[in-house]
Amino acid sequence: MTTNDITLLPFEKRHLAGALKLSQEFSWPYRLEDWEFAAKLGHGFALEQAGDVVGTALWWNYGANYASAGMIIVTAKVQGTGQGSRLFNALLDATKGRNILLNATEEGLPLYERRGFIAWGKVQQHQAVVTDAPDMERHDHIRPATDEDLQDIQTFDERAIGMPRQRLVEALASIGHTLVMIQDGVLVGYAIARKFGRGHVIGPVAATSADDARHLIRAHLTKLSGEFVRIDVYAEDGLSRWLHDMGLPLVSEVVSMVRGDLPRPVSAAHIYAVANQSLS
Fold it and tell me: Which of 50, 58, 71, 204 is the least buried, fewest Cβ under 10 Å from its Cβ?
């Protein structure tokens, strides 16, 4: 069997089991549920060889002008044969006209740079089993979100990141536990914790200051004692040392890249932790 036997197809539900197996080949922590969630929200392509999934690339639409790309994997046995370029070129064609965001591993950087992506920052991955959860800190401004908060959360998220992600935020809130920060009757921050990978992930976290982001993260951690927790934060915001001190060491770092223009916040709101490195 040769690489000529590989077919490029739209990603479908039937590819999920093969995609999970492919990600496990590289020790990525996705569960089948994580693949299902991401695929349902987005679009993408699969490389198929004799019924096996040997490559994947997904993307998510955020309005008319933006998209994020991720879950880009090619099995080791066909790497170096041009299949990665074939797969990624299909994704670029599908997202033509949009500014595209992605987070790149060191191995993926050359491919993305050749396609016109430019590095603009880094995302730092922190994770561990929470053995010493912080004591419950009284914070009168933080409370669990209600259904009535969803629209305000979506609006705040769009202002914080500079692109519309209403469908993503609604989907995350539907499967996770959402905390909001309210001051003088106005939502000034939110954070979602949900099951993901080896345990739980905290993200997105959006707030108007790093201190408020810390309060929201801490409020989630108090409820996650004994659980494996992951959080991915932007290096530029300086939360890494604090997370280390909270018992979540830095385990890896990826390069944030853009092809086109970066979305810009339209207020003091800011995204401090991503939903995950693919969805952003």
Answer: 50
pLDDT beyond 70 at 228: yes
The residue ranges of DSSP E strands in 25-98, in sequence order, are 43-49, 52-62, 66-74
Q: What CA–CA distance (Å, rounded) separates 124 from 195? A: 19
- Radius of gyration for the alpha carbons in the chain, expressed in angstroms and rounded: 19
Structure-block tokens of residue 133:
């959860």
pLDDT of residue 1: 46
**3-state secondary structure (DSSP) of residue 128:** strand
Match 């590095």 to its residue by tokens: 119
Using CA atoms, how far apart are residues 277 and 273, in angstroms rounded to an integer?
10
Range 90-97 average pLDDT? 96
Tens-digit pLDDT profile for residues 99-129 = 999 999 988 999 999 999 999 999 999 999 9
Residue closest to 253 by CA, chosen among 73, 106, 138, 137: 106
The CB-side HSE value for 199 (13 A sphere, CA atoms) comes to 15
Give the pLDDT band (50/70/90) at residue 135.
low
Identify whether the C-beta of residue 127 lies closer than 8 Å to the C-beta of residue 230.
yes
Q: State the pairing for strand pair 199-207/228-234.
A: parallel
pTM of the model: 0.95
Give percent helix, percent strand, percent coil of the chain, each to the nearest 5: 35, 35, 30
Per-residue confidence (pLDDT) for residue 176, from 0 to 100: 98
